[in-house]
Amino acid sequence: MKTIQLKQRGIGRYSDVSPFPLGDLEIEIVGIPNISAEFRYVAKCNDIKVAELTVSAAKSRVTISQDKLTAGRFSCAVQQYNKGVMTKIFLIEELLITEVNGTLAADPEIEQMRRKIAALAESFEEEKKARKTAETEMKEAQKYAHEVAAGLLKFAYEDYRENVYLSGGTFEEFLNAYGIETKGFTEEEIKNMKGE
Predict the structure, then answer these.
(1) 180 to each of 23, 49, 158, 168, how far by Cα in Å?
(2) Helix, strand or coil for residue 39?
(3) Which of 76, 149, 186, 194 has the fewest CB atoms nearer than 10 Å to its CB?
(4) Number of neighbours of residue 185 by Cβ within 10 angstroms
């Protein structure tokens, strides 16, 4: 048996919010006002009415036969009538019904949404950590590539200057001859490339 706590303002909730196997759905409704009004419990499964029963504070148990339930969305409410006119509706949290191998299971929707939000938040945090790690690794790779490029330019300039088969010349002539830019290198790194 599942217990639903009606609320004067807000949505009535199932007291046990964990998913559960579904046979005949037996519900006890707690919080029906003890006043001189008529209360009806109305239930729909996938927008098809499956129950409309009179309930009260004293007679607060209802049963929905399993053969009326199918996979999809189960919604219900308690309607209050005064002198034959509906004056209030107590909305109740929906159940999401799933079918696996011919067996039905129900999951209160609000709690399912909370679990999904928690999973998304956890996934977001993991993604954030992974991105931070990737950024750190990228910076380290860029630093390494920069150092390798500086070392290669120093080696290439030494070869350009000392190799008898190359024309030789100043560092600026070397840069112009091969279309190399030193943008991004510090003055200290350029001095080191020149061998100063």
Answers:
(1) 77, 78, 15, 15
(2) strand
(3) 186
(4) 16
